[in-house]
Amino acid sequence: MTLRDLTPQMAERLDMPRGSKGVVVMDVEAGEAAEEAGLQRGNVIVSVNGQAVEGVGDFERLIDAARRDGRARLRVRTEQGFFVAVLKLK
User: Fold this and answer.
1) Cβ distance 52 to 46 under 8 Å?
2) Which long-range contacts (CB under 8 A, 24 or more apart) does 28-34 make?
3) Residue-wise pLDDT tens digits, 21-60
4) What share of the chain is helix, strand, coil (3-state, %, to 5)?
5) pTM > 0.70
6) Rounded distance, CA 45 to CA 84, Å?
7) How far is residue 39 CA from its own chain's centroid?
8) What is the pLDDT of residue 46?
């Protein structure tokens, strides 16, 4: 999965509130854990295991910490609202 920090310009294009934080899913490869979790291009990941994500660095740090459990709960924002995705980790 390819991620990018959510910028104010991207937040506006995605019709998100001013000041929104997170990472935008730019690409998901077929067959990888992100696709199995239901993530799609344009989704915004706002938290990992209940901890806020402000950028790609936060996301990577929180995912590394979750590896011992083998999975991470992601709170994801879409144009329709929020959902929780479970990402299986190796």
Assistant:
1) yes
2) 28/1, 28/2, 29/1, 32/1, 33/87, 33/88, 33/89, 33/90, 34/1, 34/87
3) 999 999 999 999 999 999 999 999 999 999 999 999 999 9
4) 25, 35, 40
5) yes
6) 10
7) 8
8) 97
